[in-house]
Fold this sequence. Notes:
With about 220 residues, the protein is an alpha/beta fold. It has one domain: P-loop containing nucleotide triphosphate hydrolases (Rossmann fold, 3-Layer(aba) Sandwich), CATH 3.40.50.300. Helices cover about 50% and strands about 15% of the residues. It has nine helices and eight strands. The chain has helices at about 15-30, 35-50, 55-65, 85-95, 100-110, 125-130, 145-155, 165-180, 200-215; strands at about 5-10, 30-35, 65-70, 70-75, 80, 120-125, 135-140, 195. It has a five-stranded parallel β-sheet with strand order 2-6-1-7-8. It has a three-stranded antiparallel β-sheet with strand order 3-4-5, with helices on one face. A hairpin with a 2-residue loop joins strand 4 and strand 5 (about 80). 2'-deoxycytidine-5'-monophosphate binds near residues 35, 93, 94 and 123.
Amino acid sequence: MTAAPVIAIDGPSASGKGTIARRVADELSFHYLESGALYRLIALVSLRDRMRAEKALAEVAERMAVDFVGEQIFLSNQDVTLDVRSEEVSRRASEVAKIPEVRKRLLKRQRAFRRPPGLVADGRDMGTVVFPDATLKLFLTASPEVRAERRYKQLIDKGIPANLRSLSRDLAERDARDRNRAVAPLVPAPDSQVLDSSALSIDAVAELIVRWYRERTGGLR
Ligand code: DC
């Protein structure tokens, strides 16, 4: 049996990849994996339980009870959808993501999302590490200004207080950490298509990806 097809969408924070990946998954009736949410959940536990030891965090990565229901995220049956989006959690997530053992333990969990008829997965290392055999790999970018504004709007829309200047600074710091870490750094896979979404609407990018996917698979889907 051949494995279900995967569309891997990687890129820096607030490049629009989450919204775009969801849109593409809906359009193709594929499953969806927001891998960043897994790192955010570990960060949430780390903050709540004042847990910093790498070994303990790796255990959390393996054992935490997570459910994704539509756009809602549950941790041990508790709705943490809003909690995982705070800037404090974002910062800790990028620290947690540097720990090799955490990344290793999340591999199996992430690959379990690959089920027929297919999967759209977004993150930093979907095309390079988790699904190297993905059918289509995208690396989405956008200018730092556009990304900071997108993140700002996203938070305000959700009723979470935000400050544009400190958001820009945090994004730049997190980008640097994601790009420079030793394990699975944020880099485009050599066989990925790099797409700058600064001047494109979310709809336009999603449509483009669906079209590329259909072209690549001979229009079968
Ligand atoms: O996509 P996001 O902003 O929700 O990701 C949160 C953090 O997790 C971010 O600092 C990068 C990290 N991450 C990662 O290292 N690998 C992934 N596949 C997804 C996210």
